[in-house]
Amino acid sequence: MQKLCFSHSSRRKTKQIDYLNWKKEKLSTFIVMDKPTVSISKSKYNHSPIYSWNTISHPFLTKLRAELYPNDKKSVSIEWLNQIDELALAVWYLDDGTQNKRYGTISLATNCFSYEEHLIMQEWF
């Protein structure tokens, strides 16, 4: 049986292209594309371009995925949270966060985590 190797893909709209290019620079070891792939959003409300960078499949990314997705389910632990610095938290927010301007709050999309993992994150924050 062949062992799978994983890759990573980042997708962003035009207004976030600078952030997408910054991520490409940070992941340049794993990206061989010269230009991002461009597709058109299939949303019935918005047909704006979507830009994406894809990494190559690589054993390092496979190991990282295995640690973050044990049993093929996204997971978080205090050990992982304790490795997060200000930059990593900013990237987490830019990838999975939202801002509520009306209430002056931000949130992270954490719906995939268990109740116990939410308690771990709550304590960590």
Strand order of the largest sheet: 1-3-2
Write down the overall geometry.
Answer: globular
Percent of residues in beta strands: 15-25%
Q: What is the number of strand segments? A: 5
Global mean pLDDT = 86
Unreliable residue runs: none
Terminal residue distance: 42 Å
Q: What is the helical fraction, as a range of percent?
A: 25-40%
- Give me the strand/helix succession: EHEEHHHEEH
Structural class: alpha+beta
Please tally the helical runs, counting DSSP H or I stretches of 4 or more residues: 5
Rounded to an integer in angstroms, the radius of gyration calculated over CA atoms is 17 Å
Your description of this structure?
With 125 residues, the chain is of the alpha+beta class. The protein is built from 5 helices and 5 strands; from the N terminus they run E-H-E-E-H-H-H-E-E-H. It has helices at 17-26, 59-68, 78-81, 86-96, 115-124; strands at residues 9-13, 37-40, 49-54, 97-100, 105-108. The strands form 2 sheets. Strands 1-3-2 form a 3-stranded antiparallel β-sheet, with helices on one face. Strands 4-5 form a two-stranded antiparallel sheet. A hairpin with an 8-residue loop joins strand 2 and strand 3 (49-54). The model has no long low-confidence stretch (mean pLDDT 86).
